[in-house]
Amino acid sequence: MDYAIEYSGFHVILEGYSDANWISDSDETKSTNGYVFTLRDGTIAWRSTRQTIIARSTMKSEFVALEMAGSEAEWLKNFLANIPLGMKPTPSVSIHYDC
Q: Which of 1, 20, 78, 97 could make an SS bond with 65 (beta carbons 3.0 to 4.6 A apart)?
């Protein structure tokens, strides 16, 4: 309790990456999507899952993945706001995707 690691000299930036693949196998009917979120260059959350809908295009598959990542980003931002980090995360969250 008497020791701590202190980060200073840079902002706390919550950053995310989202991706999806559109039905890669003829036996499959649903796409796979995933995301990863980093804070201060360290991974803090990730997920890969089968989509719950049947996307009829690559673009729709990517948007479904981006929506899932956006929901997680909102939850993480609210969660981090309640943890005493010394510095609050930046108000915006960047989510990178490849539509």
A: 20
List of residues 6+ apart from 6 with CB closer than 8 A:
86
Residue 79 lies in a domain: yes
Give the pLDDT confidence of 39-79 residue by residue, as tens digits. Answer: 877 888 999 998 888 887 888 888 889 999 999 999 998 88
Domain count, the chain: 1
Q: Is residue 2 part of a domain?
A: no
| Number of neighbours of residue 2 by Cβ within 10 angstroms | 3
In a domain, residue 21? The reply is yes
pLDDT category at 34 given cuts 50, 70, 90 is: very high
Cβ atoms < 10 Å from Cβ of 93 = 19
CATH of the domain at 48: 3.30.420.10
pTM above 0.85, yes or no: no
